[in-house]
Structure formats: structure tokens, C-alpha cells
From TrEMBL:
It holds the Pfam family TetR_C_6. The lineage of its organism: Bacteria, Bacillati, Actinomycetota, Actinomycetes, Geodermatophilales. It comes from the Bacteria. Residues 12-72 form the HTH tetR-type domain. It comes from Petropleomorpha daqingensis. This is AcrR family transcriptional regulator. Keywords: DNA-binding, Repressor, Transcription, Transcription regulation.
């Protein structure tokens, strides 16, 4: 017996297939090299199906980024629940370093998109909203974890999170040139020096 999907179920299934295809094409070709035609082909749809779900390539990328942000925030929350203080901060940094190593292409893709978005005020504003949400969630996770051991970052939580993100972005670029640059232990040492008693 074949179970027919309802219209909303079909729409959601198609959206998921398009996001999976977009991830594959973006990682393979980069943001500039990816096309909606290639993404539609990868998903097994016409370009019209892509436009029925997304306004264009940037919209598709931002939806993909939003899904990734939600997944990472969930994982960060689990880590903070399992660890406290500097141990939690180190765990967050290690997991982030592992993610970066396993998905180096994603880090470079995100940097490429950020450069494109920086030249388009409307797109940059959309990206900035997601980035702010990510930064704020990360800042809360770090603050909660450190507070368990009576610790605080040397800077306001949002600034502390920005510093970690900036180090991560710079590290991605350094690793593209030299995979052995900036070992995780060095970054952990640097960041944990910015934490002290409340």
C-alpha cells in the first residue's frame, strides 16, 4: 500500500531535498560557482520547484545556514549541560575545531558568502540577523557554562563570543594555507586566559 503525502508534507519533503542538494552543490562549487540549475538537478527537480520554495540562491543559502545554526546550537546546549566552567569552554572549542576540520569546505564557503553579502546591504542585513542570533546563543551557552564554576569572561559575553568567532574565521583561513597552523591547544589556551572569577 502506497502512502500519499499531503501537500504540506510534499512541500516539506521537497524543501529538505533541495537543502540537502544545495549543501552538496555549494560545498562542491563554492557560493559563486553554484547555480540554481545545478541544485535543482542534484535534487531531481526542475528549477521551478526551487523557485516555489526559495526566492533565489541567497535565500537558499540562508535557509541552509539557518538549519546549520539550529543544529550547532543544539549540540552546544548539550555540551554545556554536560560540562561546567573552563572544561565546558574547552569542550565547546574542541567540538568547534573538530567540526571545522571535518567540514573545512563549509568554513571557507561561509567566508565566501560573507564577502558576497558584505557588498549587498540587504543581503548583509539578512545574514547579520542570523549571525547575531548565533553569537547571542553562543554567548549565553558560554556564560551559563562558566557561571556553574563562578567564572566570567574578561569581556562582555557578546564581545567574548565575537572574539571566539573572529579567531575561528581567521583560523579557517590560516588552515587553508597551512593545515598545521594554530593548533587547537593554542587557541584553547588563549581563550581560557580571558576567563576569571566572577
Amino acid at each position: 500500500m502506497t502512502i500519499r503525502l499531503t501537500r504540506p508534507q510534499q512541500v516539506e519533503r521537497n524543501r529538505g531535498l533541495l537543502l540537502d542538494a544545495a549543501r552538496s552543490v555549494f560545498l562542491e562549487r563554492g557560493y559563486a560557482g553554484a547555480t540554481l540549475e545545478a541544485i535543482a538537478d542534484e535534487a531531481g527537480f526542475s528549477k521551478g520547484v526551487v523557485y516555489s520554495q526559495f526566492a533565489g540562491k541567497a535565500d537558499l543559502f540562508l535557509a541552509l545556514l539557518e538549519r546549520r545554526i539550529a543544529d550547532r546550537a543544539e549540540e552546544n546546549a548539550r555540551l554545556v549541560a554536560e560540562h561546567a566552567g573552563v572544561d565546558a569552554l574547552r569542550a565547546l572549542l574542541r567540538v568547534n575545531a573538530r567540526r571545522a576540520a571535518e567540514a573545512a569546505d563549509w568554513g571557507r564557503l561561509l567566508i565566501e558568502f560573507r564577502v558576497v553579502a558584505a557588498r549587498d546591504p540587504a543581503l548583509n542585513a539578512r545574514y547579520a540577523q542570523l549571525h547575531t542570533r548565533t553569537r547571542d546563543a553562543f554567548a549565553r551557552a558560554i556564560t551559563d557554562a562558566l557561571a556553574k564554576d563562578g567564572l566570567v569572561p574578561a569581556y562582555p559575553p557578546e564581545t567574548f563570543a565575537q572574539l571566539i568567532f573572529a579567531i575561528d574565521t581567521g583560523s579557517t583561513l590560516e588552515h587553508a594555507a597551512d593545515p598545521d597552523a594554530l593548533p587547537t591547544e593554542l587557541l584553547e589556551d588563549l581563550v581560557t586566559r580571558l576567563v576569571g572569577p566572577a
